[in-house]
Design brief:
The chain contains six helices and 13 strands. It is of the alpha+beta class. The chain folds into two domains: 157 residues, Aminopeptidase; 85 residues, Glutaredoxin. It has a seven-stranded mixed beta sheet with strand order 1-2-3-5-6-8-7. A hairpin with a 2-residue loop joins strand 7 and strand 8. The longest helix has 15 residues. It starts with a strand and ends with a helix.
Length: 247
């Protein structure tokens, strides 16, 4: 039987957070992510992981306090569900999602939702996996889709109007990011150094509050790239990826 751990204020300093295990270059990002989780626990944030050394976890919280430009009443929002490597195809993803669904029901929620896409994109869940459990598309922006599983007949969540523009006034390469992901701190530094070396104008806009997250000008889970005023992807970039995009 699989053993799971929920992060709490008492154990978070000792437990790993899956994504960046044992990689010294991401330690700052891990520290920032843990600080972010600590601040979110009071909102009902849940980070549940397999008690093993691997990338196996689910992370969710009430939609009202989730750092995404999505609105709805009495829903949970799943930020991430990740089962990697040798742990795939063993029913762990099913157990993690069923736990979240059961938890939402026990807390009297009207449903649970998550961000996916028509075609698989990095850092987003598999649409077919969620559909297998009864999730349905309730809103969309381009290729991005909001999936929800309703427990009762209530109004479904939707993207905020500000997220639908997928455009900004600034024409320089602009990145919106937050500490929801432990990888971002290292990549922000790498990109900053690269831009300075190549004399490239880069703008970084940190989402560091609920208000900023709810008012993001695009779909947002932890990272968003804009170029020439247009949203181009939600992919976390390194210097090589940026170089290719600019070419």
């Amino acid at each position: 039987m699989n053993e799971y751990i929920n992060l709490t204020i008492d154990n978070i300093d000792e437990e790993h957070i899956c994504c960046a295990i044992g990689d010294p270059k991401h330690q700052e990002g891990v520290d920032c992510k843990k600080k972010w989780i600590k601040n979110k626990l009071k909102d009902g944030h849940v980070f549940r992981k397999l008690n093993a050394r691997g990338k196996i976890f689910i992370e969710y919280e009430p939609l009202e306090t989730s750092w995404v430009p999505i609105s709805g009443k009495n829903y949970e929002y799943i930020y991430c569900l990740w089962v990697a490597g040798s742990f795939k195809d063993k029913g762990i993803g099913k157990e993690l999602l069923e736990y979240a669904i059961r938890d939402a029901k026990e807390n009297g929620k009207s449903g649970i939702c998550t961000l996916t896409s028509k075609k698989k994109k990095p850092f987003l869940g598999e649409k077919k996996f969620f559909e297998h459990f009864g999730f349905k598309v309730v809103d969309s922006i381009g290729d991005y889709e909001l999936l929800a599983l309703q427990f009762e007949d209530t109004e479904t969540p939707k993207f905020n109007n500000n997220a639908r523009s997928m455009k900004i006034d600034n024409k320089d390469f602009t990145i919106y990011y937050s500490n929801e992901c432990p990888y971002v701190e290292y990549e922000i530094k790498e990109l900053s150094d690269y831009a300075k070396e190549k004399n490239i104008k880069l703008n970084f806009i940190k989402i560091d509050s609920l208000e900023k997250a709810k008012n993001a000008p695009c779909i947002f889970n932890n990272w968003a790239n804009f170029y020439k005023g247009e949203f181009i992807s939600n992919t976390i970039l390194n210097a090589n990826a940026l170089q290719k995009l600019l070419k």
